[in-house]
């Protein structure tokens, strides 16, 4: 493995550009040699291009399928570069990195010649925004998770490859809606044979964006191929069996393989097209990186250490952890690390555990029980762990508004349990926010422990083998829930839910890990610290800098550094080099309130609006309770899950709604919700740094510590893990 640089490399004063093509916006971030942000810019598809009439960057079909106009993306790049040119000198940019959402792009055979012969006097959209360039103008896209379910195409692919486990073993992933393979199947079925004849190349959205810059079709990056549902990692080739299923009656395996093209592990895709040199004054030697997915680029922006985990809260919650082992399973996804130097002998990967029941349940619980995020945050904080003071009567809830794949793919509904018995509603309604958050976090904690048990993170994390001498609980679970040595030492949190002090404290206690957030989340209440993902239609737009764009800029900076210094000069991994430049420093003077607390309620937001980061469907309401209307809960739930089935009765009253009196059988002490004892405050939750006795806090690699673990609190949650697992197993087996 490469070693970190021992001396500072003296590079010219240059800049590095990172791009992210999201569902709803196209974003850019420029950093300098010291990784300081120079400028950022955003193009909002709905606001900037109203002529397309998209919502959240998407068209929604009657069958709740989503498509997006590819030529709108091209038009967005024109506008983004025009705006950047007016703010900064683009000739200083030395390299460009990028990422994009999960989507497919269908190039015509003629498009290759068009890319090679672009006229700098005309916009990209004028030259590429037609059916001459794209055989499919409106391509399948991944919309809000709350409105989607695993498609029939995904089931067809999974069954043809032998089921979830066999599919994961063969192509590294289990079936789900957003697979590149599934999108191709959907597009072929919708468009028939005619478009296939005109198609010359099928790209991911990331390789499409890269292609615009290098005047040719860019190859798909290995980090995207390995989660496409068609890539055989062991053989390092497209899988014939998977290709046969995807091709179906509209194509043949050979033709589909040619349309997909070669897969690359190279970090560098090429040099910039003369078009951008002449039109925007980029330097002709500007290097273009191989673009990757936005979630992985977000991960790279945090430069996690081997003992770290990154938890990104959003439409889909993602737990991402570095590993050097490739052990495929349906329970998680393994992605090839996209920024590895050719001289590295040990290949690296990123493990990803996903939860589709993320923002949607949190937003629904907010609507049903509190009507405000400040009240939601306070209820999570004041209700005891497990929703009850007692040790033997803990409460559990499982919210499956959309199916989780693959083990729980058949489950839809809401399940609550008191003393091990399924109930329609908790006697103490105030327990609902806390029990939801706990269940979401315990699910990740259990998933991580199971990955450790199969040796995925060895030797960094390992647990003693389960034997006859192990405790009964350890034998039943496959791991010891009371042993925190196999859990991450640090969890880096990002996304809107990471703004909640109560959620961050719960995360700290469940994992027994120190919790960090980006420093800019502390200083600006969001911004560069926000997560990346997709916006739901009609949801507020973010005002901060995209972490995925920052990750692309960091990758561009690192690769230029390796080329300048070379491996022989000791240039290390991207993570080592970025952490080395960002360094560690102690700054800031905290208030007495913050000292020693780690997290706490911040000051009110003057605008009265929570700024929701991209990818979160949480803050879809104005944060002013005086204007909030009561919701019909049945209708609100059905908007997410359709007709209830298998779960509880969905007619759950609002905790403090008009005419509703709380249950008299409370199992928690009186919840003091603030000075007014009412959850009607319009202040927005905000985390604070963990200050030392001098009122200072430390920034480590751009991250700020906000919570430290407590062994007693961890033990409380460890005691609930066996029951949580038992209840989830019962739900999966359909016996509750």
Automatic annotation (TrEMBL):
Name of the protein described by the UniProt record: Actin-like ATPase domain-containing protein
Biased composition (Low complexity): 675-685
Keyword Kinase appears in the UniProt entry: yes
A GO BP entry: xylulose metabolic process
One Gene Ontology term of the molecular function aspect: D-xylulokinase activity
Family of this protein: Belongs to the FGGY kinase family.
Biased composition (Polar residues): 661-670
InterPro entries per the UniProt record, alphabetical: ATPase_NBD (IPR043129)
GO annotations of cellular component type: cytosol
Protein keywords: Kinase, Transferase
Lineage per the UniProt record: Eukaryota, Fungi, Dikarya, Basidiomycota, Agaricomycotina
Lineage: superkingdom: Eukaryota
Disordered: region residues: 644-687
